[in-house]
Amino acid sequence: MRALVLAAALTAAGCAPRPVVSAAVAAGELCDGPDAWPLVVEGGRLFVDVVADGPRGPAPLRLMIDTGGNAHGVALYGRAAARLGARDVAELPRALRVGGRIVSMPEGASWVLVDDASPTSLVARARPGECDGQIGAGWLSRRRVCVDAVARRMGLGDPRASTIAADEAAAPLLLAEEAPLGARYAFVRADIAGEPRTLLVDTGASAGMLHERAFAPLTARGPWAEVAAGDWDMIAGAHATERVSSGALSIAGRSLGAAVFVSRADGTFPALFTALPGGGPDGVLGADVWSRHRVLVDWSSGRLFSWPTAAPTPPAARVPISISFDLTGCPTVARAAADAQAEGLAPGDRLLRIEGREACGVSHAELSRWLAAPEGKRLSVGRARAGRVEELAVTSRGALPRAPITGLDR
User: Pick from 137, 157, 177: which residue ends a domain?
Assistant: First the structure.
């Protein structure tokens, strides 16, 4: 790694050509080298623990790694800024301590503060206590990035340190720049059950997402189509969703195995990012895929490399409801499949206990784990409705018919 850093310095000075390396070597230098960052894998997402210095002194932060996230660089929730004593971004540092090393933010990246104090804030309701912010595209797209969730390591490198061999098999990236911040979002052309789709490379989503027009055909394609109610992705009930297993999925002719997708309203992704040449984007490819591959994203050359590290894991059976949060931090039922309704749960019910554990104030990721259980297992759920509290026994289910699922409109 130090040799590559020195080579980058010489190249910048015009003294030496960049060394040419294979993609596997470049990934190994970053994910396996001494400067690799330890990853925390929690709730289907990837995090890194850092220490930041603020007016009140140093404080630990847990930041999500999100290639599809904020264009500034680092988003920090208000409660974390308060721990640091920072009232605005000018009081936040330009470097973080990661694994005992000082890591400087790249030129052009910056902080942005996110309000999570309001009781109506999605951040406050969706992830109470789960993390303090995210490292997003404004930082990551200015680096060469390796992520290996199985090894629980990631690395960021200077793309000027070396050139990845031109004949390496790779997925070409479509890059959309977020002006005026200069962050670049990476998209890939994917084949999903024989249909071409353009998807955002998004390590911050626990599952993939597809526009309804792309999602609906998957539910009728064959025996591998798996549909259930639930907020399988990261939005914690802000959207009512269904999920489906993709069956065959590939990029650049290489199979990635089946992926999980949830539905989103048509037009969601061009509105969030931009319309791309040739059509799209149609959705995102989430961490359920990237967490079982070693991934090297090289924004500078517009290429993505991947190596499988684990087999696909089918979506777990769970109580077939989708949860949101009320203003007190208690989970509520946003949607309920017919099976759950027959056992006493309905949209609007507050969930007070799950298997005897208090549910109010618990993070969305933790609640999702509590609601997952082997197919057919009956879970004890404390439900409040119209001032009355009742203990129910609700059955964990896997694949469900697409209808009827009652609750919020998609």
Answer: 157
Model confidence at 229, pLDDT cuts 50, 70, 90, reads low
Among 132, 157, 182, residue at a domain's last position: 157
Residue 314 resides in a domain = no
Domain count, the chain: 3
pLDDT digits (tens, 9 = 90+) for 338-361: 888 999 999 999 999 999 999 998
pLDDT digits (tens, 9 = 90+) for 146-178: 999 999 999 999 999 999 998 778 999 999 998
378 within some domain: yes
Quick check: is 162 in a domain?
no
Residue 398 lies in a domain: yes
d(CA 109, CA 138): 5
Q: Cα separation of 12 and 4, whole Å?
A: 12
Q: What is the structure's pLDDT at 314? A: 67
**How many angstroms separate the CA atoms of 279 and 282, rounded?**
8
Q: For position 315, what pLDDT does the model report?
A: 65
Helices (H) and strands (E) in the chain, counts: 10, 33
What length does the chain have?
410
Question: Contact at 8 Å (CB) between 231 and 43?
Answer: no
Cβ distance 7 to 19 under 8 Å? yes
Statement: residue 197 has pLDDT above 70: yes
Same domain for 53 and 110, yes or no, is yes
Residues 147 and 177 in one domain: no
Q: Which residues of 95-112 are buried (b: 16+ CB within 10 A; e: fewer)?
A: ebbbeeeebebeeebbbb
Look at residue 115 and give its three-state secondary structure. Answer: coil
Strand-pair partners of 306: 295
Q: What is the residue range of 389's domain?
A: 321-407
| Residue with tokens 């895929």, as numbered in its chain | 289
Which of 139, 166, 165, 158 minimizes the C-alpha distance to 10? 158
On whether both 273 and 399 belong to a single domain, the answer is no
CB 261 within 8 A of CB 190: no
Residue 6 and residue 143 in one domain: yes
CA pair distance 410, 408, nearest whole angstrom: 6
Q: Which residue has the tokens 């960021």?
A: 156
Mean pLDDT of the chain: 84
Measuring CA to CA, which residue among 153, 138, 171 is closest to residue 297?
171
pLDDT in tens, 16-74: 678 999 999 999 999 999 999 999 987 678 999 999 999 999 999 999 999 998 889 99
